[in-house]
Write a structure and sequence with these properties.
The chain contains 9 helices and 8 strands. By secondary structure, it is α/β, with parallel strands linked by helices. 41% of the residues are buried.
């Protein structure tokens, strides 16, 4: 007989009304890169360059969230130029790379923007995301996240990182936070 998973094992799942209230408060969507915006795989070229595969559907979602007036930040321990290029393509102005303490860096960004960590939703999947996930107003993760990240999350997406998980969250923002009234490019 299969055992039902407890909320502690699968991450806390907020009731839809509570999730909607939290989404409406968010002014900054902070996104981890590897494992969230990508599938976590790294491709190494013969020249040593690291390549990442980003999902076009996530890009459309990010543009729609930006059109709602919500700031977006990419926050990564990685330092490759592909992260900067993807952000520039989508119009994401806040790109924090080479980050060892995501909570501190996003806290600094919040001060610059006149926000608190309670105004932030962070989507992360690994151990270095956990302190930030525990500090923000809305903690989000993906199904393949480290158990510690899942336990810190308020919401776990159905889709995996790099496979539309970010779009899933962005669609929630558009539906709940902005009331669905957005116009944006479909160029993701």
């Amino acid at each position: 007989m299969a055992r039902a998973r407890s909320k502690r094992q699968t991450g806390q799942i907020l009731a839809p009304t509570v999730l909607a209230r939290r989404l409406k408060r968010i002014r900054l969507l902070s996104l981890d890169v590897d494992g969230v915006l990508t599938d976590g795989g790294l491709y190494y070229g013969d020249d040593g360059n690291v390549l990442r595969k980003f999902n076009v559907h996530d890009g459309v979602g990010i543009k729609r969230v930006l059109a709602c007036g919500i700031e977006v930040a990419f926050v990564s321990a990685g330092t490759t130029r592909s992260i900067q290029h993807r952000a520039r393509t989508l119009g994401v102005r806040h790109v924090l790379t080479g980050v060892t303490d995501k909570r501190a860096e996003v806290g600094n960004l919040c001060r610059k923007l006149g926000l608190s960590l309670g105004d932030v939703a962070h989507m992360g999947d690994d151990l270095n995301d956990v302190p930030l996930l525990r500090a923000v107003g809305l903690a989000l993760t993906v199904p393949a996240a480290a158990p510690e990240a899942r336990r810190a999350a308020h919401h776990v997406t159905r889709r995996h990182g790099g496979e539309g998980a970010v779009r899933e969250i962005c669609d929630l923002f558009v539906a709940f936070a902005a009331g669905g009234n957005t116009r944006g490019s479909n160029d993701g």
